[in-house]
């Protein structure tokens, strides 16, 4: 069987951004002797994998199923399904820098050798990078991700996100917004720069488009300071001043700013409002007590202080907006009192990318599957502790 994965990479570079799936299909047929391929994209809520080449097909189905695509997506490992005639379906993860985009299906006439699987996995990696880049140039893959129409506010929020997960050395980070198709002001942002990871979680004020616009101003003000080399304090203060001079104290944004030294496990924090930080260590979940300072934009020239704490190898941090911990449907006790901690403890054997979904599903169950009364953000950060054995180099 011919192995020419470099041919696929060249085909992807030459293809128009909206034709990557077709280019990969043609090249894989030639390079690996594939009889069929399909690109499955995960939807906004990670409830299903949906085909790009043949949108009318429903193969892949809900992620709760047991198909090869679901197993591959969850495990992030190749899955081979061989039928009685010897034909094989190889499912390869479409992931880039730890962000799970979907799954590549390659149908082969026989069970492939290990070298063929590795070649196909390399192709899937090239395709994932191309898909991530193509999102700036075409709407095709974004359309595949949505199961219903997004509100204008949600459209802005999803476009503002840095991604939904990232992996780098000893750090794995993931986040999720809900309600995915109508989220208004709640948001998260992050940036990796060498051994420094900056994470912000915003509890947006208000609802709808007005809340989304306020969040966009806040996020971009913090990014402007961060990209200019500003510290956490400078990020908070620039965002606060920007909001205040635009709204004169009538609008403000509760924000948690974190900066993790990925090598030493030291976290610097500015707690400017209501997002909560919970540490999962062993079998216990406890809130990290930070000194709560004024939300961004409440007063002119507000000044902020940084606090520090350390994480230990294996620690997991959850940052959640008040739409999670304060959820109180039908007069029940707040979700964060017991149910949230129980959901977080149940994730200790799951990767961060699965953990955020578990907490969100439990939140929906707490609402008895009714619509959430408020926007909700869950961000999960794992620090495994610096050691050559744990460093995966961002793969």
Automatic annotation (TrEMBL):
One GO molecular-function entry: phosphatase activity
Question: Is Electron transport one of the keywords UniProt gives this record?
Answer: no
Matches recorded under SMART domains: PP2C_SIG
**Lineage top rank: taxon:** Bacteria
Q: Identify the residues that the record assigns to the PPM-type phosphatase domain, covering every copy.
A: 168-383
Going by the UniProt record, its keywords in alphabetical order are: Hydrolase
Which PANTHER family is this protein grouped with? STAGE II SPORULATION PROTEIN E, STAGE II SPORULATION PROTEIN E-RELATED
Q: What protein name does the entry list? A: Serine phosphatase RsbU, regulator of sigma subunit
> Which organism is the protein's source?
Micromonospora auratinigra
């Amino acid at each position: 069987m011919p192995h020419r994965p470099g041919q696929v990479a060249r085909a992807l570079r030459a293809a128009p951004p909206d034709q990557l799936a077709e280019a990969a299909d043609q090249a894989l047929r030639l390079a690996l002797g594939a009889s069929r391929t399909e690109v499955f994209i995960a939807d906004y809520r990670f409830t299903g994998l949906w085909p790009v080449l043949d949108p009318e097909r429903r193969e892949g189905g809900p992620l709760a199923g047991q198909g090869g695509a679901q197993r591959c997506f969850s495990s992030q490992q190749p899955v081979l399904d061989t039928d009685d005639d010897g034909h094989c379906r190889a499912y390869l993860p479409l992931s880039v820098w730890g962000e799970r985009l979907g799954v590549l299906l390659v149908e082969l006439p026989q069970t492939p050798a290990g070298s063929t699987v590795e070649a196909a996995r390399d192709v899937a990696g090239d395709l994932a990078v191309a898909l991530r880049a193509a999102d700036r140039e075409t709407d095709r893959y974004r359309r595949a991700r949505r199961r219903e129409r997004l509100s204008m506010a949600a459209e802005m929020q999803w476009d503002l996100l840095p991604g939904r997960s990232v992996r780098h050395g000893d750090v794995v980070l993931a986040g999720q917004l809900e309600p995915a198709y109508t989220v208004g002001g709640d948001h998260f942002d992050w940036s990796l720069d060498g051994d420094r990871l900056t994470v912000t979680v915003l509890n947006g004020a208000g609802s709808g488009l007005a809340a989304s616009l306020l969040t966009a101003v806040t996020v971009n003000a913090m990014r402007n300071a961060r990209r200019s080399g500003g510290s956490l304090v400078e990020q908070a203060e620039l965002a606060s001043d920007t909001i205040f001079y635009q709204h004169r104290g009538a609008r403000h944004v509760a924000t948690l700013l974190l900066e993790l030294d990925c090598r030493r496990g030291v976290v610097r924090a500015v707690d400017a409002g209501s997002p909560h930080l919970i540490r999962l260590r062993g079998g216990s979940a406890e809130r990290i007590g930070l000194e709560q300072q004024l939300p961004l934009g409440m007063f002119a020239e507000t000044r902020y202080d940084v606090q520090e704490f350390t994480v230990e190898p294996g620690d997991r941090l959850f940052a959640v907006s008040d739409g999670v911990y304060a959820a109180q449907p039908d007069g029940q006790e707040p979700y964060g009192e017991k149910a949230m901690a129980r959901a977080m403890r149940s994730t200790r054997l799951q990767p961060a990318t699965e953990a955020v979904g578990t907490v969100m599903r439990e939140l929906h169950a707490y609402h008895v599957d009714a619509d959430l009364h408020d926007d909700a953000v869950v961000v999960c950060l794992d620090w495994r502790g610096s050691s050559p054995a744990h460093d995966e180099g961002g793969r």
